[in-house]
Amino acid sequence: MTVVTRFAPSPTGLLHLGSAYSALVAWTRACEAGGRFLVRIEDTDIRRCRREYETEILRDLKWLGLDWDGEVRRQSDHFTDYGRELDRLGDRGLVYPCFCSRAEIEREIAASASAPQAALHGPDGPLYPGTCRHLAPAERKRRIAAGREFCMRLDAARAAVAAGPYDFVDEGRGRIEGQPLLMGDFVLARKDTPTSYHLAVTVDDHLQGVTLVTRGADILPSAHVHVLLQRLLGYATPLYAHHPLITDATGRRLAKRDRDLTVQSLRERGVSPAEVRRRALAAAGRQA
Ligand code: GLU
Fold first, then answer.
1. What angle do helix axes 51-64 and 273-287 make, rounded to 10 degrees?
2. Of 233, 232, 237, 90, nearest to 175 (Cα)?
3. Domain that holds residue 23
4. Which long-range contacts (CB under 8 A, 24 or more apart) does 84-92 make?
5. Ligand 1: which residue has its CA nearest to atom 6?
6. β-pairing, 73-74 with 167-170?
7. pLDDT for 53-98, tens place per residue?
């Protein structure tokens, strides 16, 4: 089987040493296996993503010598693909519209803190308390007809039953038992965008034939729900390899605001592509 890897940056800032390392890992794994290395622009968060950053990221990858195969896939060009797959989940009764505002969700969570059944926590904080899960179909229709904004959420409990038990393999960690409820009723399509990160990444990895997902260890919890979606949608599950995140000297992870560690600023200071690659690998080696 041909190994297919991908680097999937969100164009919310410039490529820095940490994201360059991520790209280097995916590129190297494809090269070593005589496989394919793909680049995908994850620009579904329309408020934070910028075309200028996309251009700069691609320029930096080329400069680093990390050439990719085929065309770059830009997620905002493919909303119909995500809509189609969302409909498939909807047809099976696994999805519902949620009209809650952020403030309403916070109020509900605060109120439930003193209740016997306290709010459940996920990797990113308290989980959605499920307020809209039980709305009657007629009430849903009424609110939609009235022009109320809504997002679409997965009914995780139903999805867990539909998917059955599952697991996946992370290269460094071995077989991991899937936790379908880890992120609760997570969002599949946002109020302002007809998809979410979780849905788009799962659909794209499938459509692009990705066999090995390499990315930062911060995203490992998401793999539980990506594999859940793969099971529900009848996709194959790739192999995962979550790598350590590069941190600075104080142990803080590199962020897009660390301007002096962007590939662009290193280039401007006369550092060669080979040296940037070496520094990225060395920084990762220190974390391992
Ligand atoms: N777009 C995500 C990021 O920039 C990466 C997602 C992934 O590799 O699955 O953090």
1. 100
2. 237
3. 4-79+198-283
4. 85/199, 85/203, 85/233, 86/152, 86/188, 86/189, 86/194, 86/195, 86/199, 88/233, 89/154, 89/159, 89/188, 89/232, 89/233, 90/152, 92/162, 92/232
5. 8
6. unpaired
7. 999 999 999 999 999 999 999 999 999 999 999 999 999 999 999 9
Ligand 1 centroid, distance to 286 Cα (angstroms): 22
Of 189, 222, 250, the residue at which a domain comes to its end is: 189
| Chain centroid, CA 47 distance in Å | 16
100 and 65 in a common domain: no
Q: pLDDT tens across 103-140, in order?
A: 999 998 888 876 666 678 888 889 999 999 999 999 99
Place of tokens 């880890």: 182
CATH number at residue 277: 3.40.50.620
Of ligand 1's listed atoms, the one at least distance from the Cα of 12 is 4
Pocket test for ligand 1, best of 215, 222, 225, 254 (most atoms within 8 A of CB): 215
Our answer to whether residue 256 is catalytic in this structure is yes
Give CA–CA dist 10/70, Å, rounded. Answer: 19
For residues 160 and 208, membership in a common domain is answered with no
pLDDT score recorded for residue 40: 98
Report d(CA 246, CA 249) in Å as an integer.
10
pTM of structure: 0.94
